[in-house]
Design a protein that fits this description.
Blueprint lengths: L3 H12 L3 H13 L1 H13 L2 H8 L2 H7 L1 H24 L12 H16 L2 H10 L11 H34 L3 H23 L4
Helix pairs in contact: 1-9, 2-3, 2-9, 2-10, 3-7, 3-9, 4-8, 5-6, 5-8, 6-10
C-alpha cells in the first residue's frame, strides 16, 4: 500500500506549486512563521472533505454532474479573485509580529481551508489517484484508502510548512524595502487572479 511509487508520486504532487503553496508562501512572507504554519494546517484540513467525498461516492457525482462541478468551480474562482483583490489593495507593511491571537489563527486556518475545499479538481484527483495504490482484493479497502489519504495529508502539511518557513527566512533577510513589499504583494495578487482564470477555464 505505502509503496515507494506512492510516496514519490505524492511528494511530487505536493511539491508542485499551486494555490495552497502560493497562499502559504505569501502568508509566510507577510505575516511570519506561525502564520505560515496556520496556513499549512488550513490547506491540509481542506483535503479532508475531498477524501470523505471520494469515500462516500460524491466524487462520482462531481465527475458526472456538470452543474455540481461548475457550481463548486465558480465558488473557487470567486474566492481566488477575492484573495487577489484583497492582496492587491492591502497597503499595510508586512507584519513583524507573529500571529498569536486565537481569532487571527482561526481566520488564517479558515482562509486556507477554503482554498482547498473550493477546488473541485481535488476530489476528482483523489478519485483517480489513491485507488491505484490500494491492494487488489483486500477486504479493508476503505481503511487502506484512509491510510493513504492521511499519509498524503501529512506530506502536504510538511511540505507546505517548509515552504512557509523558507518564505519567512527570505522575508527576514531581504524584505526591508517598502518597494519590494509592494511588488511582492502585486505578484501574489496577480498569481491568485491567474489561478482563478485557470480554474475558470478548467473542464472536468
Amino acid at each position: 500500500m505505502f509503496t515507494t511509487e506512492f510516496l514519490l508520486t505524492s511528494l511530487v504532487v505536493v511539491l508542485i506549486p499551486g494555490t495552497g503553496v502560493i497562499f502559504t508562501v505569501s502568508i509566510g512572507l507577510m505575516q511570519g512563521r506561525r502564520a505560515s504554519l496556520c496556513a499549512s494546517l488550513g490547506c491540509t484540513l481542506g483535503i479532508v472533505p475531498h477524501l470523505l467525498a471520494t469515500l462516500l461516492g460524491l466524487a462520482f457525482i462531481m465527475h458526472t454532474s456538470a452543474v455540481a462541478f461548475q457550481a463548486l468551480k465558480y465558488a473557487g474562482v470567486a474566492y481566488l479573485l477575492y484573495l487577489a483583490v484583497a492582496t492587491w489593495r492591502n497597503r499595510e507593511a508586512f507584519s513583524v509580529q507573529e500571529v498569536n491571537q486565537p481569532g487571527s489563527v482561526a481566520s488564517l486556518v479558515v482562509k486556507a481551508f477554503l482554498i482547498n475545499i473550493l477546488n473541485p479538481k481535488l476530489t476528482i484527483f483523489f478519485l483517480a489517484f489513491l485507488p491505484q495504490f490500494i491492494t487488489a482484493g483486500a477486504e479493508s479497502s476503505m481503511a487502506q484508502f484512509l491510510g493513504l489519504g492521511i499519509v498524503f495529508m501529512a506530506m502536504t502539511f510538511g511540505v507546505f510548512a517548509l515552504y512557509g518557513q523558507l518564505a519567512y527566512a527570505f522575508r527576514v533577510v531581504v524584505i526591508e524595502s517598502p518597494r519590494v513589499q509592494a511588488w511582492l504583494r502585486r505578484g501574489f495578487a496577480t498569481a491568485f487572479a491567474g489561478l482563478s482564470l485557470q480554474l475558470a477555464l478548467t473542464e472536468r
